[in-house]
Input
Amino acid sequence: MTPNDPSGFNTRGGRLYAENVALADIAAAHGTPCFVYSKAALIAAYTGFDTAFAAHPHLVCYAVKANPNLAILNLFARLGGGFDIVSGGELARVIAAGGDPHKVVFSGVGKKAQEIRDALSAGILCFNVESPSELERIDQIAAEMGKVAPVSLRVNPDVDAKTHPYIATGLKESKFGVAHGDALALYRRARTLKHLRIDGIDCHIGSQLTETAPFSAAVERVMSLVEQLGADGIALTHIDVGGGLGIQYKTEEHPCRVDEYAAAILAGVKGRTEKLVFEPGRFLVGNAGVLLTRVEYLKRTADRNFAVVDAAMNDLMRPALYDAWHDVLPVDTAHAATGTLEPWDVVGPVCESGDFLARGRKLALKEGDLLAIRSAGAYGMSMSSNYNTRPRAAEVMVDGARMHVIRQRENVAALFAGEAILP
Output
């Protein structure tokens, strides 16, 4: 990390900082494990994405699932952003954070009837419809409420996103979306339903994409369908090309830049005037956050060295779930520079062999050291759990020289407050 690191984290005087606040000071004030976010990095990521598409009418709808904290949602709302949601709970969060429901697109394969009612009542921008049954259900509920529901079809283009299979969503075997070959017939069916209004078309092929070719291939297939719809008399007001733009997890990685991504998308829709809608999540928040954790024990065995820390798979699931890489940095960089480097597996206290945050990292460690797990702003807190009856971590937002607690640390009593013993 350098003083001008765009992630908002930097090294000064042998210490690691979030903007102008030392991470050690945050740990001292709020304990560990703790998620720390940089407001400046969040703003820079959003404005960079937004500016890349300045030449074309567009709306940036942040994918709430990446990190649903109200402070983050409110920040993006104040910047003019919309939101991509996948549940009624996420809609409630957007509204509570001051987001505009008219800038909300509702994705997801399993929308419940009450979620559809709530979204119609709120006046969302559009439902991204993922099956014929869902289309019929939305029409029926809209009729019962005396409303007309705005819809688009999420089209599955059968494009290989070349990413982890758990986060690839655009192949024909995926549960997501409507097959490209079935979409025209379903649009024609939607046109006959009196309580639906066809507004757009949607496509999302996966997450953590690091090259432009899959995006270009998906847009090409979607645009061919847009041309067919136009010839059939079905006009669209927007084209939603989804999200999925990847971030840098390893220092040696070089994922495609947002300007390269924008050039690929704009080339694919050249000549069209429909508004473009985007659903970035990880790209906006991933590198704007770290997970602070403290080394509890150093355990050496004949085969491995284990650094047992107070964060675990329940705090950051990605390594256990995807075998994902997150850089691990000592917060006291001066000690790290003078100590003896050894290979360490950074593991948590959860009672699972899969509870690891990193493996085989060359670190100079002693018990009590603070570590920063990088790129934890996306799918960290949002995927966290209370497994092993572990309270979830605190969240802190740094704004220049100030730190704000944006989520209090849970306490154990609250975890079973809703439970009851049999009489």
